[in-house]
Amino acid sequence: MTTPKFITYEQGEAALDWIALTDALAAGHALPRAEIEDSFLYRRDDTLLSRAAWIDGLGSLVKTATIFPGNAAAGKPAVNGAVTLFSDRTGEAEAFVDFHLVTKWKTAGDSLLAARRLARPESRNILILGAGTVAGTLIEAYGAAFSGAKFTLWNRTKARAEALAEKTGAAVAEDLAEAVAAADIIATATMSTEPVLKGEWLQPGQHIDLIGAYRPDMREADDAVLTRARLFVDSRATTVGHIGELKDPLARGVIGEGDIVADYYQLDAVRRESAEEITVAKNGGGAHLDLMTARHILDRVGA
Predict the structure, then answer these.
(1) In Å, what is the CA distance from 97 to each residue of 1, 6, 10, 91, 226?
(2) What pLDDT does 215 receive?
(3) Span 24-47, mean pLDDT?
(4) Any idea which fold 5-103+288-301 has?
(5) Chain-centroid distance, C-alpha 211
(6) What predicted TM-score, i.e. pTM, was given to this entire model?
(7) Domain map (residue ranges) of the chain
(8) What is the CATH number of domain 120-284?
């Protein structure tokens, strides 16, 4: 019987880099399409999300997350959980990987893969909406791919943006519309249920990563953002029928499924066609991406 490896947050942080991770995610999408299944349970604002994935040749994974937005007021992480990676050959547990490690690298790596393919290579001005854990990680991730990037933060509670800016050296936006207009890349990492990003603010050549919305009742971008841009998703299976960012405008006929140009299983089609076009990538963060990330972590830390 194989003894599973326990991989701590510190072990993973010491072994990983952002470019290698996005390359691993790209390679994972060259394997047979993942079998995935999600289960959502709700208690008012709290969510219990269990995600499972199996990729032939890579193994299987179960990741359970608890999302309790009210934890922030008590100084506790809003998102917690557990990750188990299973052998593709025997089905035995191969590794228990720190939940926050997998979540950090999967979430930002997912959007970085899109940005590396869709943002203009000369992009330097990066605006992040939100000032939580994900926002800080995005500064790390985008900084690895866009040399000389300058970051600006916006948050509804300005003091939180100022606190993160002090830690990271980012600037703080005074006016959101002006900050959006000046950005090359815009990333939304909020817990909003109503759009905070408006399409009327967008400028030619921008790339937008939509990250925060994960429930059917959540939106970060208004309809005009979607209709003005070429639209991509990491996975049709985990976004179209599950996340309000797409489910809502699809139900109202604002966009059609045919407006989604490609997902990561059509990675050659995830590309910018002109310097002027606006591109949007919706990060759904499915369990298959957790599986690819966890397998990469195990490979880097050492089996």
Answers:
(1) 19, 6, 11, 16, 36
(2) 86
(3) 94
(4) ornithine cyclodeaminase, domain 1 (3.30.1780)
(5) 5
(6) 0.93
(7) 5-103+288-301, 120-284
(8) 3.40.50.720
